[in-house]
Amino acid sequence: MNTKGFKTIGIGVTFSPNLEANINEAARLALFLGSKLVLIHVGESSEDKLSVFSALLDPFKGQGLVFEVTFKSGDPVEVILSTTEEKKIDLLIIGALKKEKLLKYYVGSIARKITRKATCSILLLINPSKNRIRCNHIVVNGLKDPKTEETVTTAFLVGNKLGASKITVVEEVSDDEVSVKVDDDKSLRKSTIVKERLRLREEARVKAIIKAIPNELTKSVKIKSQPIFGKRGYSIGHYAQVARADLLVMNAPRKMNFWDRLFPHDIEHILTELPTDVLIVQ
Amino acid sequence: MRPKKPSLIGLMKTLPKNMFSGLVVSLIALPLGLGLAMASEAPPIAGVITAIIGGIIVSFLGGSFVTISGPGNGLVGVVLVAITTLGLTATYAAIICSGVLLIILGFLRLGKLADYFPSSAIQGMLAAIGLIILGKQFHIMLGNKIIRDNGIDYLLEIPNTIITVFHFEDKGLIYAALAGVLSLAIMVFYSKVRNKYLQLIPAPMWIVLFSVGFSYYYELILKSPNPISADYMIPSIPDIGTIITEIPVPDFKMIGTFSFWSSVIALTLIASIESLLSIKAVDKLDVEKRRSNVNKDIKALGLATVASGFLGGLNVVTVIARSSVNVNNGGSNRSSNLFHSLFLVVFILLFSAELTRIPLSALMAILVYTGYKLASPVIVRKIFTIGKEQLIIFFCTLLVTLKVGLISGISAGLVATFIIHVVITKRLGLFVKNILKPNVLMYKEEDGSYFISVKHFCSFLNFNTLKTSLEAIPENNDVIIDFSLCGFVDHSSMENVDDYQELFQKKGGNIEVTGLDVLGAESKHPFALRRMLPVQKMMPENKTKRQKNMGIIAEKFGLSYQHEKKYNNSFLDGFVYFQTKKIEYIFNELKEKNGEYQSFDVVFSEGEFIAKEVVRTTMLYIKVSKGTPAFTLDKEGILERFYALAGYEDIDFERHKDFSNRFYLRGESPEKIKRFFTDDLIRFFESNPYFHVESNKKGVLVYNKERVASIKEVKGLIDFGVRLSQAINKS
Questions:
Q1: From the candidates B432, B443, B450, B452, which should be mutated to test the interface with A, based on the most A CB atoms within 10 A?
Q2: How high is the pLDDT of residue B534?
Q3: Could you tell me which of B221, B201, B197 has the C-alpha nearest to residue B210?
Q4: How do residues B444-454 score in pLDDT, each as one tens digit?
Q5: CB neighbours of B86 closer than 8 A, spacing ≥ 6?
Q6: In chain A, where are the structural domains located?
């Protein structure tokens, strides 16, 4: 089980207006989690570039940040993925794009390809900032899935390091599991009973997962369990938005094929409308 | 917590009441059935067959409770087209096919189909159907049969027909026109006269009674033939033997043609829309607030339609006017639908010969009134107050339906609505990208209340997702609907959400809508569509003389006066009087400073559609202390004694003969009521002018006549109320 957290954090850097904010976020996170930071630049190596990165990271050096900068030319997706494997990066940070005027964020095409293919965990940042914004509320999925246990544990680990005060475990129950369709008063009563039963079952399952997590991670945060009946992957994003979460932690998807992209589900929904920062745990 | 299963004894207890309401409904169903069938150029008996078959099958297999099924108004236009293009026997085949389609729709759980049509477009379509009925039958009503190509031509001929009437030379035609005009007058003025004895028989039946009586008067007393031209009498109605031996054979030869299937689809579409709208409206009137199983009902209607088609009847649909008459006369379960059919069978068995004494023009007057009600200017005005854009949708649907046809009309309405939504928001992407997304999140919060958040947009295109969530919540819960993540909410959604709010309120729950303040509306109407960026408008209001006088009273009596309309009036819930009535709003409210009592004008409607009566009444509401039982106190009359026979009990006091004779008192717990009515209180009622008094445990409702009171009467009402409240609190 991943109780040690992330050893190496990677971030792809280009010279964009967001550069400083991106680097600051990554460096802060590396410090919090006690990890090494790897900056990946797609392009030729040069002294100028290195000095720019170095200057930006200067304030963090004093706090004991260990970092490394790599340069490699080629296709951005290929470069970042291969570097990730070479440097044994276990958390890759990707900045999301913001739609003009509207307060909506989405993941660009390159970032999306990386997200789909990466074998490590991924953190999608919607609003990188130079100064630290406290992460208060973390929402994590509690799907019935073998990966969930690790994901929830990671959420508690990260939450602990970032000083989050509240963690909500959301169990998404798909409508198909509620086998009763509501037609009239009688079937409504039946479906309400079925839902209540499912809710208790889900809560018991989540409780068991939380119980397995080391006590020092769980004692200082408020834990809430919230079952939701709705479309998988979509409703959790919606919930995170409504509950004003600062970080959404999700399982990595199982393998994707062509159809999954055509009829988006699970993580794909999240990628088109990022509700908040999203951590996808591999 | 399972409610008791309806026991046989319980069912038997309700039978007398349901039999009575079934009888009243059959009185309206008989003339309407004949008229609707004739308007669609089917044999008149077809309409009655439809009602009989529909009533029998749907009462056994249906999923709704107080609805009545039979031939529908909406279908007149479609059946007419089918009969003129396919012929009668092929139309029966089309009706059978549409019945099968309905059954399939029911099994596919597509009862929600009607949700995908914007409400203004449906209004436009119904208005067009109304105009088609009105346009065609108006000429027959005035004794001037003509044949034209389409609906608009018939409408344009109306002035011509009126001129022609004044030049009639044939006496038979003059009498026919007179019968038509008189019948129309009965339909129009019937609801204006609020007399419970007169209202016991529905207006269409009065017309039948008058015309049959008129015919007998000529035959038996004047010994001369009926003066109305024979062309304008109902053609012969076959007796029951002939009906059974001469069942028409449906002709399936045209099953491969395009026109056949376009008729089938139109029949199915209109039948399902009309039924679904009616079921929804009737559920609101149900005293017991049960939820109809729409899909089960659709299946039953489909099966009934198949049977009806084979036996020479038309499409069976749920009909709103007859259903509301059923509710108002005490119908409480499906047995009233069955009784309505059985009474129709009795009528045909006994009186099929008398029915030919009804003039055609009189029957068509009923339909002209029906058509007018569908396309009444009130509807146009109502839509206009919601927003100008709704009016565009309405007229677009209406004109295309009249000029081309029903399916094109409703499609035009759909397209127009969508285009208007895109133009208003200027964001096509908002709709295109998000239409298939599950945009509604519903979850139960820790305190047991439900939270629903709607994202992107909410319109007729995806209201279904919100509806599914709302349907899954037991109605006695608290719900919050948050639209703050929505960029656009349309009129259909606002209206539907309001329906749900009403439903939850009645069942003890509550729906609160939040997040609309970030969206702006163009009109002040509560159902106006909402979008980002507000444009507010103000309209100055003028006060009437009565309102100014009310202001003066308020000052004199030290009351506060508000003339504005108030839409949320939950304090009136729980009164028996309002159980089958729909309160629209209250206004001209005179309120005591501490809220102890208030008088107000209330606007409510009773029944639906052609049986709809909008009533304005001045009432007084008094708060009462705890321990007051629920009761209703009325003047005792013949009708009340009759009700007593049908199972309504009157609570009598042995020591107060005078009071017991003059007043009709009833309530759920007679013992409590007897204790509550002390000698002092009874003396108070005996010695004061008569008022209708009703308690719902929390408050007492007092009124006199079912109309708006004059200033003097308002003073009297307040005076009575203040003294009553003293008498009650003393006892």
A1: B443
A2: 34
A3: B201
A4: 877 778 888 88
A5: B94, B254, B259, B260, B263
A6: 1-133, 134-248
**Among the partner residues B290, B438, B451, nearest to A185 by beta-carbon distance:** B290
Q: What is the CATH number of domain A134-248?
A: 3.40.50.620
Q: Using CB atoms, which residue from A181, A228, A269 is nearest to B441?
A: A228
Give the one of A182, A235, A238 whose C-beta lies nearest to B472's C-beta: A182
Q: For chain A, what is the total number of helices (H) and then of strands (E)?
A: 10, 12
- Taking only the tens place, the pLDDT of each residue in B43-93 is 888 899 999 999 999 989 888 888 899 998 888 888 888 888 888 888 999
Q: B564-586: per-residue pLDDT in tens?
A: 878 777 788 878 888 778 888 88
Per-residue buried b or exposed e for B674-689, using 16+ beta carbons within 10 Å of the residue's own CB: eebbeeebbebbeeee
Q: Determine the length of chain B.
A: 731
Q: Which of B435, B271, B269, B369 is nearest to B612 (CA)?
A: B369
CATH of domain A1-133: 3.40.50.620
Whether B441 and A224 lie within 8 Å, measured CB to CB: no
Cα B500 to Cα B27, B301, B444, B509: the distances in Å are 33, 25, 18, 10
Q: What is the CATH number of the domain that holds B485?
A: 3.30.750.24
Contact A242 B451 (CB under 8 A): yes
pLDDT tens profile A29-51: 888 887 888 888 877 777 777 78
Task: Look at the pTM and tell me if it is higher than 0.80.
Answer: no
Helix (H), strand (E) counts: chain B: 27, 16
User: What residue in A sits closest to B454 (Cα-Cα)?
Assistant: A238
| Joined tokens for residue B319 | 């009909």
Give the pLDDT confidence of B269-301 residue by residue, as tens digits.
Answer: 888 888 888 888 788 777 777 888 888 899 999
Q: What ipTM does the predicted assembly reach?
A: 0.80
Q: Which of B320, B293, B316, B319 is nearest to B303 (CA)?
A: B316
Give the separation between CA A29 and CA A33, rounded to whole angstroms.
6
* B412 and B445 belong to one structural domain: no
- Asked if residue B596 is part of any domain, the answer here is yes
User: What DSSP line would sit under B210-254, residue for residue?
Assistant: HHHHHHHIIIIIS-S--SS-GGGBPPPPPPHHHHHHTPPPP--GG
8 A C-beta contact, residue B166 and residue B181 = no
b (16+ CB within 10 A) / e for B208-234: bebbbebbeeeeeeeeeebbbbeebbb
Q: Is the pLDDT of residue B369 over 80?
A: yes
